[in-house]
Amino acid sequence: DAGPGTHRPNARLLGAELMALEHSLHAVRLPRALEYARLNGLNRITRGGPGGRVGIVAAGKTYLDVCEALNVLGLDPAALDRHGIRLLKLGMIWPVEPGIVGEFAAGLGEVIVVEEKRAFIEAQVKEILYGRAGAPAVHGKRDAAGDELFRASGDLDADAVAAGLARALGR
Q1: What is the pTM of this model?
Q2: Distances in Å between the alpha carbon of 136 and those of 38, 52, 71, 163?
Q3: Alpha helices for 73-143 (secondary structure H)
Q4: Which pLDDT tens digit goes with each residue over 40-81?
Q5: Can you state the percent helix, strand and coil of the chain, rounding each to 5?
Q6: Distances (CA, A) of 165 to 28, 29, 84, 90, 152
């Protein structure tokens, strides 16, 4: 409903051109991207209901690794529901849509972000939830005690994810 875009890429990145480009990014293009993600269901809560206590966020291949890791840990869909574990599958990782994160985190005590490399999604989730009343603790690369959950270098596989989730969920 926003109509056609007016953004025209160019190579002039100085002065007024740069300010207009920056304004377009923050006031027009990013809000449109977030609206697109929301309207098209790119990010979905795939498991869990209102009684959840722990949420797990992942995207892409890592989401599949999380599902396999949970299976390895003996947490089938019924066990996830019994233990109050929710899953959020992100289809668009930047920017992360705040509405789905707020809906997902409502009532949770902890959110665990599983991602490869640096804490990119984790930082966005923390920023979205920061200062909200009743916001859960958010962990990813490290737990609350500072111990490593998921390595920040190399890739993750289902076994590495299972080991990190076992440490996090064992509490």
Answers
A1: 0.88
A2: 22, 11, 25, 22
A3: 77-82, 98-105, 120-129
A4: 999 999 988 778 899 999 999 999 999 999 999 999 999 999
A5: 45, 15, 40
A6: 38, 36, 14, 18, 15
